[in-house]
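step=predict obj=5'-nucleotidase n=702
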Amino acid sequence: MSRLVRASGALLLTGALVVPFAPAAGASAPMDTPGDAAFTLTVLHGNDPESALLHASGEPGFGGAARYTTLLHQLRDSENAGTGAGADEAEDRGVVTVNSGDLYLPGPEFAASQEEGAPFYDAVAASHAGYDAVAMGNHEFDFGPDLYAEFIGELPEDTTVVAANVDVSGEPELAAHEASGRIAPSTVVQVQDEQVGVVGALYPQLASISSPRDVVVNEVVGPVQAEVDRLTEDGVDKIILISHLQNITYEERVAQELSGVDAVVSGGGHEVMADEDEALVPGDEVTVHPGTGDPLSYPLLTEDAQGTEVPVVTAGADYKYVGRLVINFDAEGDLVSVSDRSGPVVVDDSVEPHPEVDAQVTKPVTDHVAELSETEVAQSEVALDGTRDPGVRTQETNLGNLMADSLLDTGVRNAEEYGVPEPQIGIQNGGGIRNSSVIPAGPVTALDTYSIAAFANQVAVVPEIPRTQVKELLEHGVSAAPAADGRFMQVAGVNFAYDPDNAAQEVDGDGEVLTPGERVRSAVLHDGTVIVEDGEVVDGPGITIATIDFSASGGDMYPFRGADFTVVGSTYQGALERHLTETLDGVVTAADYPEGGSGRIVVGEQATEPPGDGGGSPTDPPESPEPTDGPTDGPTDGATDPDEHKPGRPDDEDGDKGSLPVTGGALTGLVLVAAIAVAAGGSAIYLSRRRRSATDTGEGDA
């Protein structure tokens, strides 16, 4: 059995995990086979670019697809040439380039690709990057399988989409790509005289966070091991797993159950890995391992099922870093060391933008974003709070109320046209509010609405839900409290009180209640109808709910349990924009949406009595439950919260209790880059010129 070590570093073993200390400069670590490196492979990797095509959020000098592409090409050339190679590396060397998924994300930059006749700009960027393989991500399915199939069709034919645990046979367009070899469990890349196998894996609970329709995602370990064994039998002795499992500790646990995998490239978690002396993008911090409490240095080392050490790596998100993993193999194909040169490389303004990506991607997307940024849809008298924690994932906020009101408003407005009862309650999951920042008082733009309501979700009406099930839905919305969680609900049309010290509801993947919750103590509709009193449901007729199709179809494991719902002709971004422009007549008042919320959700025994405007004024402000972090479930069961542990970008901050990001500041970079402003023509043009319909839509919380 070979023993992998990090060159110039020491190791600390903690149970089944192997967590490296920050390497001591100039120190030398012993190896079982010193000096026996016969081949050096550099894995250049990215993950979660998520349509951040122009630059990193709030940081115009960092990231961007054009700069990322230039740096990737430069690193590929220098690694092939052996520039700066260490003494532990071999003369025979090569490079493989991979991305672990979430190549696009619904939002203002991806909206440019939805204009009639436009290409997929994210696919154009990926084409110039020249990936050997990419993994499937959850956001690839946010618009449904058909649009994803179209996207794959615009990738280069020699870029294979790898996914060993995914069955696409139920979706004809994706199945056609599988038949042609563009989708496969794995691919083999010829690197000099060596063959490198690249196997893919996707988050098994995909259907709870996106819209895969008839795509089936199986558990991870069995299918991946079968593919690794097949490659090994074919003589491939260098194998990389690129996986999108939402959390690097999930990938870590998968690695511990596999054998024959030499390295794992993780996606979906947005973790930042780096050693103490490595540069980071401003605002980023090295992620803390939730199990050990130690910073995630690069790489994270763990032992596989046979006791062999395996490096697990990731590279942040949003085109901010190119990951560089340099690994050395002996003549038998065993991994013997990780070069100390390994680590994330920052994409900053010292890198010249790739001219073709600049012309073919940056310019048209910049123009589109400029148009959105120039379209004012409302003036707000108050700052609107869309921060995550504390915020929309832990408590009522005024922006959460605004979003829930928008769903209820559209449901009522369109009920007759779509033949559904008028809804009485609006429910918006906190994970679907994505600006993760405070929008300052003042103008609210069309670009803001895309930033807030970033997914392809449609407004849906679920008729006449029994009151017992309504209580289950309310219980589900607070079941993770006090931890920050995407399922935490923002509400309209109802006020309720809950006790986070009481038993939390537990549900399975189908929304079946395994443990009834005892947290919701009181609930009253805004017309004064009491539906829960002293923790008990008050008998009465069913209640119609407006929500998003993601939640109505069981996303975030909301217990709708297959209830019939009707999509009522609007995206949730469109609902927000229309609520602002028409219902509120372009003014968000402090009376309707006070900072801190209006008492719709309170911690306690008694819901706030709604006044005539449906708000409420609690005697004491709602408590802000403190979040708790903990290790995820094991790989067989899947990660429990695909949205946790994603620091490093304002859209995905988790647990940062410092100063709050402000959307006005975060969007400034977009506006600065969008220097060529197009005359604003009203928000309707953005809906009327969509190149594709999105009837099968959803969101991924990650």
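step=describe
The radius of gyration is 25 Å.
step=end
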